[in-house]
Amino acid sequence: MTDPTDFPRDPARPALPAHLRTALWLAKLGLPVMPLREGKLPFGNCRACTRSACGDRPNMKTPGTCQCPAPCHAWAAATTDPDVLTSPAWARSWHQAGAVAYHPGGAHLTVVDLDNADALAWARRNLPPTTTVATTRGEHWIYRGAMRSVNGVRKGVDLKSTMAYAQWRGPGRGTMAPLPDAVLALAAKIPATVRQAPRAVTVPAPAGGGECRHRSPAYLERGIAMAEQRIKEAPDTIHRTVYRLFLAVLSAHGQCGCLTQAHIDRLFTAAQAKGESVRHCEDAWANALMKLGM
Question: What is the rounded distance in angstroms from the CA atom of residue 285 to the CA atom of residue 47?
Fold first, then answer.
């Protein structure tokens, strides 16, 4: 593969952002790509979706989320069209991007995301060799073939293919193998021993007392559901993601008394299902309350 930084530049045009140059190179190779913010979260590339107002989820088969005329963010926005990638609507995103992501399923690929040493050891014992790419805490094993995406099929193992995105970390090494039955079997049934059942916790809700700004209970329900989904889809920086989402929920709903223990339990359950400890959840909640002066 040619390094995208080696591409000739047109002296009559301003230099493109480095991540956009990488994205255009990958798009030419057939990988649908998109920009990522710091923290590996997608951008909202239209006004309605800025600052994650829609929960960073495309509107495909997901009621109550973004209703853009065309997907502008998350995995559904990934594209190989250079006109879209260089469009004015995406310009700010590329200048602020912290990384490039791609939609594996859109390129008929599956990424087995191995997030720790135990997951790597398991893969080496049970999966056929294929193209591997080093990540911050483990490796991506990439296979030819698409399947449904499932997080947490084993401790430290996520499957990213259709309706998901993976961060581009380089071409990797090794010859890419066909998608094996062993990976398909992981998605068929998640082992019961992967995680302990999340424990319910009791955390005082804010006292509230302010005027309720919400027009209907559906507004709060959408906010909680979006937060649960964002936690579920968090790629790795889970501590930061949980804190930011707790902060967002409290900022929107913590002052008027609408937030109940049942809502808090849902957020804590989602975080624990992703691997957060009860202590980390409690600390994140307390820090968010302190940040907002509650």
Answer: 30
